[in-house]
Amino acid sequence: MYVIKLGGSAITIKSEPFTPRLEVIKRIPEEIEPALPKLVLVHGAGSFGHQIASEYKIHEGFKAKPQLIAASFLKRKMSELTHLVQDSLLEAGIPVFPFHPSSFMIFEDGRPIERNIEPLKGFFKVGLIPLIPPDGAFDIKRGFSIVSGDLSSAIVAQELSASALIFGMDVDGLILEGELVEHLTPEEAREIAKRLEASDVSGGIRGKLLISAEVAEAGIPVYLVNLLEPYRLRKLLEGEKVPATIITS
Question: Which of the listed residues 71, 86, 145, 207 has the most CB atoms within 10 Å of its CB?
């Protein structure tokens, strides 16, 4: 069973607000086909979320009333992106079912302290494919916190003892000094993360490396692969060696 995160930078043009990469979204059913039906999908926010969240500092928690309209608008735009992904999959006959982290997680000071994914597990057993978007969650100290797709991916992968967690990105994997890093241990991933700065409100590649290290230590390999390259993900799922970064303990 796989958990696959469709990166926001791959399914949207991150520099252009509310601009999806429709050619990538339409290709997703073919890309994930080898993993069906034992699959949980997660998608990122990209240009449908990061600019709003950053402008209104949603990731810092509730501080002022203007954030309330911004949070509501952010939820609305995220739903638009989720619908685009869902429509593409439905047209291919893939029964995806959105699950929103705000309905099954509680945070405290930016960290998840409670989660109940039993309903997700139940629907998964029935045969529905969970599709988890980025979301906000109630935070008992901050009022609300952002639940990134990366974090949801890691939580679900560990809860379901996934065979692998795969991050679909807009690059071949972790690139350092112009070269693809093909393999990392959790310790190496953390050391590299210390030298990087977060590039967006969800932590960017720095956050992804830290989350990947945790998942890899739990015995689940993590792959960073280029979703913009047609059928790169499909080939990986079929067992073919492709350019990618793998993080394993």
Answer: 145
Q: Tell me the pLDDT tens digit for each residue of 84-135.
A: 999 999 999 999 999 999 999 999 999 999 999 999 999 999 999 999 999 9
| Cα–Cα distances in angstroms (integers) from residue 130 to residues 4, 125, 180, 243, in the given order | 11, 11, 31, 27
Tokens of 151: 């974090």
**Edge-to-edge order in the sheet of strand 143-147:** 111-115, 105-108, 135-139, 143-147
Residue 73 CA to residue 112 CA, distance in Å, equals: 23
Report CA torsion sign: 239, 165, 104, 56. negative
In terms of Cα–Cα distance, which of 224, 228, 220 is closest to 209?
Answer: 224
Give 127-154 as a DSSP string. T-EEEE--EEEEETTTEEEEE-HHHHHH
| 222-226/179-180 β-pairing | unpaired
CA atoms of 126 and 36, how far apart (whole Å): 14
d(CA 54, CA 201): 6
Is there a contact between 112 and 52 (Cβ–Cβ < 8 Å)?
A: no
245 burial (CB, 10 Å; 0-12 / 13-18 / 19+) is buried
Q: What is the pTM of this model?
A: 0.93
Amino acid identity, position 92: A
Beta carbons of 89 and 130 less than 8 angstroms apart: no
For 194, the token pair is 């210390």
CATH number of this structure's domain 2-247: 3.40.1160.10
